[in-house]
Amino acid sequence: MSGALRVALRALVREGVGQLAPGGVDWMEHPQASAGSFVVLQTISGSDGHTQDGPDGLFQGRVQADCYADRYADAVAIADALTGHLDGHRGGGFAGIFHLGTRDGLADADPDLLPRVSLDFMINWRNDNA
């Protein structure tokens, strides 16, 4: 996954969750000093497309967005806003973003952990249009 794609997707997610996630949007980690609800992004899988003539410039991959909040209802609100903003999006290098699934819960049912809603998106990114 290219750096340009990571930057563009993070900006698009920030745009979609706005005030609902004042703690920010980050790849793979959440800064401990940040307060409020937040979103963590991670690449699940992905690869560049190829034809018989070589690379075709299209990356396709699965990205997970974990929406965290103090209350489960707030995590759901972030997830709903993000799904509405990203599902079907095209433009700015994105050839298409599609919602694939949703999961929720607490890891290991630990009462000290924040409620989380996890979303999976298929990202189609055209490197030459970025």
Search tags:
elongated, 130 residues, alpha+beta
The neighbouring-strand order within the major sheet is 1-2-3-5-4
How much of the sequence lies in strands comes to 35-45%
Instruction: Please mark out the parts with pLDDT under 50 across 5 or more consecutive residues, or reply none.
Output: none
Q: How would you state the average pLDDT, rounded?
A: 88
Shape category:
elongated
Which sheet architecture does the biggest sheet show?
A: 5 strands, mixed
- Number of helical regions: 2
Q: Would you count the extended β strands for me?
A: 5
Description:
The chain has 2 helices and 5 strands. It is of the alpha+beta class and 130 residues long. The protein has a 5-stranded mixed sheet with strand order 1-2-3-5-4. The two termini are 13 Å apart. Strand 2 and strand 3 form a beta hairpin.
Short description:
The chain is an alpha+beta fold and 130 residues long. The chain has helices at residues 3-17, 72-86; strands at residues 25-27, 38-51, 54-68, 94-105, 116-126.
Secondary structure: elements and pairs:
Blueprint: H1 3-17, E1 25-27, E2 38-51, E3 54-68, H2 72-86, E4 94-105, E5 116-126
Parallel strand pairs: 1-2
Antiparallel strand pairs: 2-3, 3-5, 4-5
Helix pairs in contact: 1-2
